Each structure stands twice: as structure tokens, then as C-alpha cells.
Task: structure prediction
Amino acid sequence: MKKTFAFHTYGCQMNVRESEAAARALLDAGYTQAADEASADIVIVNSCSVRAKAEDKALGKLGLLCASKRERPGRVVGVMGCMAQRMGDELFRRLPRLDFAIGTRCAERVAPAVEAALHGEATLALRGLHETPDAPSGHVTDGGFSAFVTILLGCNRRCTYCIVPDVRGDEWSRPAREVLCEVRALAEAGVREVTLLGQSIMNYGLRTPAFDESDPPSPGGYRLPFPRLLEAVAAIPGIERIRFTSGHPSGVTDELIRLYREEPKLCHHLHLPVQSGSTAVLSRMRRGYTREQYLEAVAKLRAAVPDIAVTTDVIVGFPGETEADFEETRTLMGAAGFDNAFIFKYSPRPGTVSATWEDDVSEEEKARRNQILLGDQDVRGAILNQKLVGTTQAVLAEGPSLRNKARWSGRTSSNKIVVFTPPEGLKPGDTVALTITRAAPQTLYAE
Ligand code: SAH
Ligand code: SF4
Ligand code: F3S
Result:
């Protein structure tokens, strides 16, 4: 009997992508995907360190999984990702039955670690944060129409609150040739939509080179590596939609705006985390822009691409955030007119600069500010979605909707979810033109 495996993935899309690459390696090594986690012989937790809560969840999960080995002695339990990188061998002290811990930038070590665990050997694998990383390779496409492609690893921005540079290491751009080769293979396997990933993705090719003389010049004359790469991805036959995440105002350049206007495959959605609307807080966060610069980037983009959706991340309760700072975040969110926003309560992370400052906004106050912003965003989202009623949208069909199997869901170019009655013969990955008939804060409906 082949051993079965399951992944339990926390954190961002980068982790989803790395779980997938590790799953590919396990499939290639002869293991099979378990029907569910409960029945799996091998369970791998891919962990996140961005907030204390994310680590607590992964540790809780691992505790239960390790305890399950008492009834199932042959079971393999491992951890990979950011928390494994941060905690290293401490994880074995906390979880004596743990079989392996594999850090970031070395997901290719997962399959050998599983093999070793089956022979009773534990593995701890960590790669230095300044070493050249391995990009995740191998996809599990199985007829899927959408895929993640990592183009930029690590991060050098070092925002004062953020653990990511300490767990993901130095910023490193994958050579464009390698990225394009991966996207071509995906397109040949039937993938229609790619989402390019990188923490500060617009820095692509700025710190480490991505193109060299042997690469063909950009047909559109793009000189900045990021728009140039997007243009080259768009030229790949079969690819119909390109998305990317996350943006930074400094990357909203004239070239990127031109590409949004000229390249129909580039989806009209930008995830542009703002974190705060107060310049004083932004400066202590070391974000590298002011409130005005952020709003100017959004205004420029909206002027050139009127139907673009802009989404964001916000942190409430950063050290020293006053009521007035918070009000500035509120008004910025209104002025920017975000289509969606993820609001996080500040969580001090060990080793970061801001963790040395007093975490002086109380938990109740963080919760209150969080609720206020969520409430505002609900109202804003509902109004923005209402404006789309009566418009016709190109929707990439994803398949039966979770709640009602007779209806399908799909996404607009602006990344809004549309629930609709599928026309006959529709396949996942097909694009249909739909007239929006009804809107809810998070969902659009079409007949
Ligand atoms: N690289 C991305 C963000 C990656 S982390 C960017 O800079 O755009 C995802 C989000 O988690 C961040 O945008 C931020 O809003 C939130 N976050 C990061 N560190 C945090 C912390 N210490 N406490 C609370 N939220 C945090
Ligand atoms: Fe963290 Fe800032 Fe890098 Fe984003 S840009 S990953 S918030 S350090
Ligand atoms: Fe979390 Fe690591 Fe992503 S800390 S948000 S999984 S980069």
C-alpha cells in the first residue's frame, strides 16, 4: 500500500504554492494524496509566523497531530515554512514526537525528510537567509485552470513590525527565463490564469538581475523588469489572465500604468497594502511612503484605469497609534475607495524593531478599531458592488459554487466573485460575459 499524505497550510499564497511544490515531489516519489487529513499516513503542516495567532494555530495543530501518533505509531508528522524557519530545533523540544522541521527556501527537502521519517530518522533542515534560495518547482495542475508562480523570494524592505525578512531571507528575483519556462509549461497543461507571487513583487529584478543580454528585448519598450516580465508572460499563448501580489506604491510607475492600459490580459486588480493612513505611523513602520504619496499612487492608477479594483491590508494598534492616527486610517480608506480590505490587529513579533517598543494599544482598543474598519469596508464594498449592477463583466468560470451546486462561481478581472447559472456546456476555466443583476457586499450575482 502506498503511503498517503496531506498538507495543512497556514499563511499566504507563497505557502500554498510551496505546499503544492512539496506535494508534487511526494507524488513523484510514489506517495499518494490522502482523501482527507484524518486518514493520512503523513501530515505536513506548512506554517506562518506573521502574527502570534498564526503560530499558535500551527503549534496547536502540530500538538494534536503528534498526540495522534500514540494510536497510530507509524504516522509521520512534519512542519515546514516560516515558523519552522524561525523556531528551528526548539520545535523538537516542544513536540518530542515531531518527525521533521524544514525551513523556507528549501521545500525540496520535504520528500527526503518523509523518507527518512519512515525509517525512524528525524530531520531539521534550515537554509541560511543570505544563501541563494531554491524557487519552488513542480505544480499539481490536475486540469486546474489557475496557478501560482513565485517570481520573487524573500524581502529586503524590513518594515519594523514584520517577521517576513527574518524567515524568508534576502530578496531574490528568479531569472525571467525560468519564470517564463514555468508559465509556458502551465499553459500547455491547460492553465489559463497565473498569479505571480512576491512579498514586494514590484521590486522584481531590481536587487538581483532578472533579465540579461541573451533575453529578447521588450516589444513594448518596457525598461523596468517587473512590467517587462508581465508583458512577456502575457505573450505566452493560452494564458488569458495575469494577476500578481503584493504591490507597493513605489512600484506604481508610469510603465506599469501603461501596461494596465495596453495589455488586456493584465487583470484590473491591484493589492496595495497601505498598513496605516497616518504618515507618522507609516514612518515608524518604515513603509517608505507618506499618506499623500499612497493616495497619489491610487489616484494616478484610477485616472488611467477607471475600472481597476484596489484592495489593501491594514494594521490597527501599532505602537503609539493614537485615536487621531486611527482616524487618518479611516479617512484614507474612504478616500482610496478600497474594494476590499484585510484588517489585522498588531502583533509584536520577536526580533523585529517594533517589538522593542511598548505594545501600548490595548487588546480591546485594537478589537474596537478592527471592528470599525470592517464595518466601514462592508458599507463601502456594498456601494461599490451596487454600481456594477447592470454592467456586463467577463467572468472566468471556476466551477459549482460552495453553497449551491446548481450555481457556479467565477471571478471578474477585478477579482470579484460572481455567482451565476451556468450556460450549457460551460467548463471551468472558460470565460463568459455576464450581466450583473444583484450585488451583496462580498458577492455579485448574474443570471
Ligand atoms: N509583503 C506584503 C505583506 C506580507 S504579510 C506587503 O508588504 O505588502 C501580510 C500582511 O500581514 C501585511 O500586509 C500586514 O498587514 C500584516 N502583518 C505583517 N506583520 C504584522 C504584525 N506584526 N502584526 C499584525 N499584522 C501584520
Ligand atoms: Fe514584511 Fe514589509 Fe517585506 Fe511586506 S514589504 S514582507 S510587510 S517587510
Ligand atoms: Fe506567513 Fe511566511 Fe507568508 S510569515 S504571511 S507564510 S511569508
The radius of gyration is 22 Å.
